[in-house]
Design a protein that fits this description.
It is a single chain. The protein has about 80 residues and is mostly helical. The protein has one domain. The chain is built from three helices and no strands. Helix 1 (about 15-30) packs across helix 3. The longest helix has about 35 residues, at about 45-75. Mean pLDDT is about 85; it is low at about 1-5.
Length: about 80
């Protein structure tokens, strides 16, 4: 194996991919792309990115709560 090959996966939070999708969907609704916003220095773009982050955070909280609920239901059976 050469130093250019990597077997080490990048560390990410368990729901990071879902978060990216949620943020992407939010900014797409505003006619923008997540990639574009991540590289922009425009204050309006940064604000939209912050809004998308807050939206994704809220949705992830909802998903995690539902996961805990389902887990608790199955744990009591």
């Amino acid at each position: 194996m050469t130093s250019n090959e990597t077997d080490v996966r990048r560390f990410e939070a368990p729901l990071a991919e879902i978060e990216r999708h949620l943020m992407g969907a939010y900014v797409a609704g505003a006619g923008r792309s997540l990639e574009e916003l991540l590289h922009s220095t425009d204050p309006a773009a940064r604000e939209l990115l912050a809004d998308a982050s807050r939206y994704a955070s809220g949705r992830l909280s909802e998903i995690e709560a539902r996961l805990r609920y389902v887990h608790d239901l199955h744990a009591t059976e």
